[in-house]
Amino acid sequence: MTARLIDGKAVAAAERQKCRERVEALKREQGVTPGLAVIMVGSNPASAVYVRNKMRACEDVGIRSERFLLPETSTEDDVIRLIERLKADPDVDGILVQLPLPKHYNIERVLGTIPAEKDVDGFHLYNVGGLVVGGTVFPPCTPYGVMRLLEHEGISVIGRNAVVVGASNIVGKPMALMLMQHEATVSVCHAKTRDLAQYTVLADILVVAAGCPNLITGPMVRKDAVVIDVGINRLPSGELVGDCDFEGVSKRASFITPVPGGVGPMTVTMLLVNTINSAARSAAARDAAGASKSLLGAV
Ligand code: NAP
C-alpha cells in the first residue's frame, strides 16, 4: 500500500480563502484592517526569504504588514525599544521577531517583551504556559498547522498513540502539548533518546521535527500510521527533503505529508489566522469598552 498524500498546499489555500473573507468582513463591518509588524535583525539570507514569504502571504489575504529591518550591530535594547513602540500602536495586531537573533542576544528577554496579546508566533511564556493549563491566546504556528492538517483529513487523535520526534521549544514541545490537549497518548523523543525505533513503531500518529534527513525509515513506522514530516533539510544537491525516507515510509503509512508542500505552507497560514484573530479580539474589546462607556454616560 502507498500512503495518501496530505496536500498542505491545498489545505493552506482553502484556509487562506477563509482568511481573505474574514479580513474583508473585519474591514466592512468594523473598519479594521489587521496589521502585522515583522522585526528582523541582520541579513541572514534564509530569514530574509522567510520574512518575504510572510509579508507576501499577508498581502495575499489583505493583512497590512510592515518590516522593521535592524542592522546586525543593533543591540538587544534597540530591539526591545522597537517592540515597546509597536506594543503601544493600536494599528499593530501582531508582532513577530524573526529567529534566529544574533547569538549574544537573550532571546527570552526579547520575546518576553512582546505582549501575549500581540504574540502571534505563540512564543511568549503566557502562550506556552496556556498550552499546559489551557487559555493559550495564540498557538504556535507550526504545531497549530499540523493540528489543522489532521483535522482537515478527518484524523482523530483521541486515545491514539502519538510520537513526536524532536523536542524544541518552537515545534516539538508545543506539538506534544497540543496532541495531549486533544487527548492523544504522547511520547516525546529527542537526540538522546536510546533506540528511537522502539518508540516510533508504536505510533499511530508520528510527527517528526528533528532536522535530520532520512532519520525515519520504513521499518521504523507502524503499518497504517499517519506520518507528519515537519523537517526541512537542504541536501548538498540543493534538493529540499524532510526527516523521513519518503519512499520507504510512504509504503507503510496510511497518510504522509510531502516535503516541500506539507507542513510548510500551513505554518505561514496559521500566522495569518493568529493575526486576524488578534485584530478581531482587539476590535471586540474596543466595542465592549465603547459600549460600557456609553452605558456609564446614560447612568
Ligand atoms: P531544533 O531546534 O534544532 O530542534 C531539533 C530537535 O530534534 C531537538 O529537540 C533535538 O534533540 C531533536 N533531534 C535532533 N537530532 C535527533 C535525532 N537524531 N533523533 C531524535 N531527535 C533528534 O529544530 P526545530 O526548530 O524544532 O526544527 C526541526 C525541523 O523542522 C527542522 O528541519 C526545521 O527546518 C523544521 N521546521 C519546519 C517548519 C515548517 O514550517 N515546516 C517550521 C519550523 C521548523 P535535543 O533536544 O536532544 O537536541
Structure described in brief:
By secondary structure, the protein is α/β, with parallel strands linked by helices. Helix content is 45%, strand content 15%. It has helices at 8-30, 45-61, 76-87, 107-113, 125-133, 141-152, 172-181, 196-200, 246-250, 263-298, and strands at 4-5, 35-41, 64-70, 94-97, 161-165, 185-189, 205-208, 226-229, 233-234, 240-241, 255-256.
Structural summary, described in words:
By secondary structure, this protein is of the alpha/beta class. Among the domains are: about 30-115, Rossmann fold (3-Layer(aba) Sandwich); about 140-255, Rossmann fold (3-Layer(aba) Sandwich). Helix content is about 45%, strand content about 15%. The chain contains ten helices and eleven strands. The protein has helices at about 10-30, 45-60, 75-85, 105-115, 125-135, 140-150, 170-180, 195-200, 245-250, 265-299; strands at about 5, 35-40, 65-70, 95, 160-165, 185-190, 205-210, 225-230, 235, 240, 255. The chain has a six-stranded parallel beta sheet. It starts with a strand and ends with a helix. The model has no long low-confidence stretch (mean pLDDT about 95). The structure holds NADP nicotinamide-adenine-dinucleotide phosphate. NADP nicotinamide-adenine-dinucleotide phosphate binds near residues 191, 192, 193, 196 and 267.
Topology:
Elements: E1 4-5, H1 8-30, E2 35-41, H2 45-61, E3 64-70, H3 76-87, E4 94-97, H4 107-113, H5 125-133, H6 141-152, E5 161-165, H7 172-181, E6 185-189, H8 196-200, E7 205-208, E8 226-229, E9 233-234, E10 240-241, H9 246-250, E11 255-256, H10 263-298
Parallel strand pairs: 1-11, 2-3, 2-4, 5-6, 5-7, 7-8, 8-11
Antiparallel strand pairs: 9-10
Helix pairs in contact: 1-10, 2-10, 6-7, 6-10
